[in-house]
Amino acid sequence: MSKKHSPKTTVIGIDIGGTGIKGGIVDLESGQVVGERFRIPTPTPSTPQNVAKVVKEIVDELSGREHAPAKDAPVGITFPAIIAHGVSLSAANVDQSWINADVDHIFSRELGRDVQVMNDADAAGLAEARYGAGKDVKGTVLVITLGTGIGSAFIFNGKLIPNVELGHLELDGHDAETKASASARERDDISWDEYAVRLQRYFSHVEFLFSPELFIIGGGISKRSEDYLPQLDLRTKIIPAELANNAGIVGGALQAAVHFKITK
Predict the structure, then answer these.
(1) Beta bridge partners of 240
(2) How do residues 225-243 score in pLDDT, each as one tens digit?
(3) What's CA 59's distance to the chain center, in Å?
(4) Residues near 214 by Cβ (< 8 Å), separated by ≥ 6?
(5) Which DSSP symbol is given to 4?
(6) Cα separations in angstroms, 176 against 7, 111, 183, 188, 201
């Protein structure tokens, strides 16, 4: 017998990436995506107007489903940029016209409803802290996503400290993500053993700076965690993320629900 999902406990989350935009209906009680995700490739060029149209298409599709929230319910949206007061201060893997754009206004105008926009790595971290590998962990939890770059989320006692860009720490004269991201491993065609050496240098440095209670590793490469995590020698426990590719959708929906007081 399938679980009942009330529209009062569901929120739509949208996760915008450089290659795809995906969305889902999130059950706030469990942190699970209800039904199938809906994905559309990121448009080219990925200008605000083009991206907003795709986001509306996804929201409209999800809004027609059985467990969807009310038609005027707020939507949570993650975006690959530093977001401050709803404005994009950078643009990672999307059109540069997003820099200094009022992202909240662009999406709320297109959708005709309230939105809450946040950085994509922050969203993944928030989801892991509430529902995943970081649930009930006290102190500092650092969620590090290894992908095209290095994303990071800083969680303290379950609360998000937004826009902590640990992928851009300078390490040995380089932006850390240019050496230790998943794409850097592929670009340089190095073995997992060689990659683990780079990750050791990076995580040792971050550990020294923040003394976290836990590292959580996200991004697609977290599926291969057995190839490199056992080789790392850290004081801090380090484990793979649990929510995988749904983390952004879930975290975005959760942030919207908290901001608009749908849940605590």
Answers:
(1) 217
(2) 999 999 999 999 999 999 9
(3) 18
(4) 133, 134, 137, 140, 141, 142, 236, 237, 238, 239
(5) P
(6) 43, 37, 12, 15, 10
Confidence of residue 2 (pLDDT cuts 50, 70, 90): very low
Of 72, 76, 12, 9, nearest to 252 by C-alpha is 76
Q: For residues 119 and 81, is the Cβ–Cβ distance under 8 A?
A: yes
Q: Compute the residue count for the chain.
A: 264
Q: What CA–CA distances, in Å, run from 88 to 59, 80, 101, 213, 247?
A: 21, 9, 6, 30, 21
* Burial class, 253, CB count within 10 angstroms (exposed 0-12 / middle 13-18 / buried 19+): buried
**Could you report the per-residue pLDDT of 118-152, keeping only the tens digit for each?**
999 999 999 999 999 999 999 999 999 998 889 99
Q: Which secondary structure element, helix H or strand E, spans residue 9, and what is its range? A: none
One-letter amino acid for residue 233 of the chain: D
For tokens 């959760």, name the residue: 254
